[in-house]
Amino acid sequence: xxLTEKLVAASLMVLMAxxxxxxxxxxxxxxTEPAKLVxxxxxxxxxxxxxxxxGKSGVYAFTPALSGSSLYVVNADGALARLDAATGRExxxxxxxxxxxxxxxxxxxxxxxxxxxxxxxxxxADGKELWKAQASSEVxxxxxxxxxxxxxxxxxxxxxxxxxxxxxxKWVVQxxxxxxxxxxxxxxxxxxxxxxxxxxxxxxxxxxxATGVVRWEVVVSExxxxxxxxxxxxxxxxxxxxxxxxxxxxxxxxxxxxxxATGMPRWTKPISSDVGVAVDQRFVFAADDQGxxxxxxxxGGQGAWKxxxxxxxxxxxxxxxxxxxxxxxxxxxxxxLSREDGALIGRISTDGSPIVSVPVVAGSNLIFQTQSGTVxxxxxx
Length: 381
Known about the structure:
- This protein is mainly β and 381 residues long.
- The chain has one helix at residues 3-18; strands at residues 46-53, 65-67, 70-74, 79-84, 90-95, 105-106, 110-114, 119-124, 129-134, 144-146, 149-153, 158-163, 169-174, 188-191, 194-198, 203-208, 214-219, 235-242, 245-250, 253-259, 265-271, 277-279, 283-287, 293-297, 303-307, 319-321, 324-328, 333-338, 344-349, 360-362, 365-369, 374-380.
- The strands form 8 sheets. It has a 4-stranded antiparallel sheet with strand order 1-32-31-30, with no helix packed on it.
- Strand 12 (158-163) and strand 13 (169-174) form a beta hairpin.
- The longest helix is centred in the N-terminal third of the chain and has 16 residues, at 3-18.
């Protein structure tokens, strides 16, 4: 299967999943309809701290990038803005000169985004363009900036290392790709001198940021099944580095944590998710592809709790936030579950459009970006 066929097939998978209840003449089936929200007696007082409109994400999934007190946000039409994370005040807003296809990545000094046809654009902290570079194909994954490098992954599964100051290409790594993959943005995260890269086929790879040398590679879950569709087992979302662990989850596979230095597995547990995990001192949280929110013990992977009250509501990656776990849904609601037992303890609405971005914890604020472009910071009273 050629690359274009892979992308078309993967796009159809997403389209089919998103439109499974579209037929207006079909009889509604409670087993496939999104769970209805029941009136909730909230035990958690959540309020809007601030809101900012950046503009629509289109077909992309944009997550704000936090560095220190600054938050960087983008839209699909090429807008890039720097905000104060505490107040939402706009420091500057520019046009990148091309449509944007990836979330921003930053180390606080350099801000990098992916543009159409694989262009990579870097700006300084004041919004001045520093350099342009070229990847081999479309960039959906947020670039990683650190260790003097910018690391970019394109959809043909090439990983590039560019000099953060000049944009000079220093290295490129080509990874194999299964015949069929999800069309999502498998994430990357910097941890010390390593970049941890989510891969199709259930693999997690650790690269040295400076050189691109592969430190280790592990299989989070082995693809299973007789057909290519059944064997899709891509890592979903962005891996999370927490202390000495790196944790990830796969579609039609498993969640697990691994030694960040060696790749040795700590534990894995069966689950299917198309979004990433959240990790804190005690738990690993995941939202499965049926809308259940699950907590695993971080130390050994034992199941701590499961809540299926949000079934089929197409949940975002969760976030550990104080005494709660927060998750967005396809109608723009943000739900708060008890970190200890998973009970629903709060809910707040945004602008009614889907939340597919990863929540960002910035000090006492919890920040979401909707598909319609509302950046909302929430605080607990």
